[in-house]
Write a structure and sequence with these properties.
Layout lengths: L11 H7 L1 E3 L5 E3 L4 E3 L3 E3 L3 E4 L4 E3 L3 E3 L4 E4 L4 E2 L4 E3 L4 E3 L4 E2 L4 E3 L2 E2 L13 E2 L3 E3 L4 E2 L4 E2 L4 E2 L4 E2 L4 E2 L7 E4 L4 E5 L2
Parallel strand pairs: 1-4, 2-5, 3-6, 4-7, 5-8, 6-9, 7-10, 8-11, 9-12, 10-13, 11-16, 12-17, 13-18, 16-19, 17-20, 18-21, 20-22
Antiparallel strand pairs: 14-15, 22-23
């Protein structure tokens, strides 16, 4: 199939056979008129919901790791994005997520220097991206963050704190530079 061509999914099971999926099929829900453009990776050790009319471009990773990822209706998630739903990720309707964004809803604890970091627990607060937001290319959203309705996050920003509705944020760490209101 040539680049740019959309593959029509005949059924949910056709999707599962032709795309990379690990775990149980019973935890993956895809809404009507959702478009999956080529190979994506879903670790279904948890719950994944993709809303109606949402477009997921090829090479996206959706990994709930025992948590959940809920993507609203009419969203677009572009190639090379990675969403980890350990602590839960909720993405509202009409959200645009540009290429190479990373959304991670957990953090490793590393308080005990005598233990390997991977043997220590995680914190899992969750992430919410409210409706009508736009995340520019390469944005990173870290655990415990809510991005308010209508906000725009500039390319390359790292969001470590809550973003008020209708804000424009840029930087590392991301800071509000302007309101859209």
């Amino acid at each position: 199939m040539g680049l740019g061509m959309k593959r029509k999914i005949k059924s949910f099971f056709d999707f599962l056979r032709t795309n990379c999926l690990y775990g149980s099929r019973k935890n993956v829900f895809i809404g009507r008129k959702a478009v999956i453009e080529g190979k994506i990776e879903i670790n279904s050790n948890g719950k994944v919901e993709i809303g109606q009319g949402t477009i997921i471009r090829r090479w996206v990773c959706l990994k709930p790791w025992g948590g959940s990822i809920k993507i609203g209706e009419n969203c677009t998630i572009n190639s090379f994005c990675h969403i980890s739903g350990n602590g839960g990720v909720v993405i509202g309707d009409n959200v645009l997520i540009a290429t190479q964004c990373v959304i991670v809803s957990a953090n490793h604890n590393f308080n005990d220097p005598e233990l390997l970091i991977r043997e220590q627990s995680e914190t899992r607060k969750g992430i919410t991206i409210e409706e009508n937001c736009w995340l520019g290319a390469g944005v990173k959203v870290l655990d415990g963050v809510t991005i308010g309705y209508g906000s725009v996050i500039g390319a390359g920003s790292v969001v470590t704190k809550n973003v008020p509705p209708n804000s424009i944020c840029i930087g590392v760490p991301a800071k509000v530079i302007k309101s859209r209101s």
